[in-house]
Amino acid sequence: MALKNEDGSITRALLITASLLFLFIMLILPLCIVLYIALRSGWETYKNTVTDFYTLKALQLTLSSTLVAVVVNTLFGLFAAWAITKFSFRGKKFLTTMIDVPFAISPVIAGLIFILTFGRIGWAHEWLDSYNINIVFAVPGIILAVIFVTFPFVARELIPVLNAQGSDEEEAAALMGANGFVIFFRVTLPNIKWALLYGVILCTARAMGEFGAVSVLSGHLRGKTNTLPLHVEILYNEYKYSQAFAVSSILVIMAVIILIARNIVEYKGKKELGL
Amino acid sequence: MKYLELRNINKSFGEYKASDDASLGIEKGRLIGLLGPSGSGKTTILRMIAGLETPDSGDIIIDGRRVNDVDASKRGIGFVFQNYALFRYMTVFENIAFGLKVQHVKRDAIKKRVGELISLVGLDGLDRRYPHQLSGGQRQRVAFARALAPNPHLLLLDEPFAAIDAKVRQELRKWLRKMIESLQITSIFVTHDQEEAVEVADEIVVINAGRIEQSGSPVEIYKQPATPFVARFIGRSDVIDNAGLLKGFEAAKDFSQAVIRPEFIRVEKSGHLEKYVRSIEEGTVEEVSFRGDCLELKVRVGDALLTANRPLEKDELRAGDRVSVLIRRIYVFDGDAARILENENMKNQAVYI
Ligand SMILES: Nc1ncnc2c1ncn2[C@@H]1O[C@H](COP(=O)(O)OP(=O)(O)OP(=O)(O)O)[C@@H](O)[C@H]1O
Ligand SMILES: [Mg+2]
Hints:
The structure holds 2 protein chains of 2 kinds.
Chain A: H1 2-40, H2 43-50, H3 53-86, H4 92-99, H5 101-104, H6 107-118, H7 125-130, H8 139-150, H9 152-165, H10 168-175, H11 180-209, H12 212-218, H13 228-237, H14 241-274
Helix pairs in contact in A: 1-14, 2-14, 3-8, 3-9, 3-11, 6-8, 6-12, 8-11, 8-12, 9-11, 10-11, 11-14, 13-14
Chain B: E1 4-13, E2 16-26, E3 31-35, H1 42-50, E4 57-62, E5 65-66, E6 77-80, H2 92-102, H3 107-120, H4 136-148, E7 154-158, H5 166-183, E8 186-191, H6 194-200, E9 203-208, E10 211-216, H7 218-223, H8 228-233, E11 238-240, E12 257-260, E13 265-269, E14 281-290, E15 294-301, E16 304-311, E17 322-327, E18 329-334, E19 337-342, H9 344-352
Parallel strand pairs in B: 3-8, 3-9, 6-7, 7-8
Antiparallel strand pairs in B: 1-2, 1-4, 4-5, 9-10, 11-12, 12-18, 13-17, 14-15, 14-17, 15-16, 18-19
The complex binds adenosine-5'-triphosphate and magnesium ion.
Magnesium ion binds at residues 42-43, 82, 158 of chain B.
């Protein structure tokens, strides 16, 4: 018995050490370095970079494109998950698979797809041009890219929850005379709200950090089509390391806030279920 | 006139026929037990009546009106689900009030009605609890109160006690029976437990593989089973192959199947049934088991293994004992035709004695 216990505790210690070490080297160390380099040239430089006009513009664009993407994807995710779990229809498997596409293909390719569709060589270009709509190398393109890359998150979180719950409660509500609207807001939504919130948070995190697809579609017009990650890249390419890392630290701080929100949501969701 | 009628209902899921030309009628205020083995299509029938499932063909008529095309939310039916399906993010009070709120009943009226129902089902003081804070029996009562709240004219209960342990189930059965009786609400009650059906229902509908085998009062179904399935499903029974070879049952030769119940059999030590000599069979006891109020014997007669009950006060029989077996009656079936055969030799004997 004693031997077995010892064995167990050795395995345990090894596993925990390995995981912590890995986390430290891969995550905590780099994050500390980001903050260290960001502040290396002094607080003044840091403040100046962070409050710089172009940085603020980039922050604004990142936040607004994230907001639009999250709203659109929350609605899309709800509809798609609802359709997939509550109805059976032709093409359901196809839809389920298609939702995963952004996970599977590289964001760069996603960016190229939009260039080939809406860019100068794309088939939709002429038509859009006649309405004076620019997508490629403009803000709409960035938003499209962010939406594309983040659309699976909400749906993916919701589908298992909706599946596991079945439709008994909805049917019970319907039998008591409730219409679809009431059923959704009074019965379904409370059941999925934590999963929904969790999906929204993951979606937000991914939208803020998106680089590849946005990079292809943005054209890197400083103050116009630059998001925070792109701004970091530009600064870095100009060998302005301190500034690059200062801007990065903004992203890190936003990520930490989201991480905390995520943990709160997860904790509350679990607590409510365990009640 | 019947309050609820199903006429030639068919329903398939892919290749599988979950309802096969099912017809039944229920009078107002009656409590019907829908009885059948697992997978026989009981839930499917309830769901079609409620409007949660659409029959492929046939009519559903409630109170003289065909409701096939009426939406589930407009049928005014109370439904207690197999797993209750309580709203988990609502309290007991909110659960029961839901149907009334949806109908825009005034707040005071809702409060009054829900309060009444909570006392009716005996959940006073629990109105602020959430479903996960209740026991199985309490949840069952909430589900029942919730279904009753909007004053439905028809109440459907899908195995309402399936998830409850045997002791509590017994109490809840009696409670439900009393409750429905006092409310005078037409109800259908699904179960796969024949004992439960017999105890609770005014009338039993036996269903097997999507077909309605028989409907009638519990006694009728027990005494005059219409099909071999019913004879075997209700009460205890044994199927015997060559019934025509049994003394006094020569007429059984013309039927394809025969079924015997323990109540139809008397077993005594060899030589103790002399006066029925023309009717008795000789057999051997193979197994004796204690059944609480009697002994259950397995007796081998020819190639048939029969089950018989023996009162405890009679002298004991052991495995291996030679016995005389007197069979008074058997059920015989041929296709859809069913008959009860009495022992011919015993009848004649009665005349001579
Ligand atoms: N939505 C469905 N899709 C496919 N098959 C179904 C569906 N619903 C029911 N069935 C099938 O129809 C048959 C009857 O099902 P039903 O649920 O009515 O049985 P039941 O008598 O209620 O059984 P139980 O006592 O186990 O609840 C089963 O064989 C089941 O597999
Ligand atoms: Mg069922």
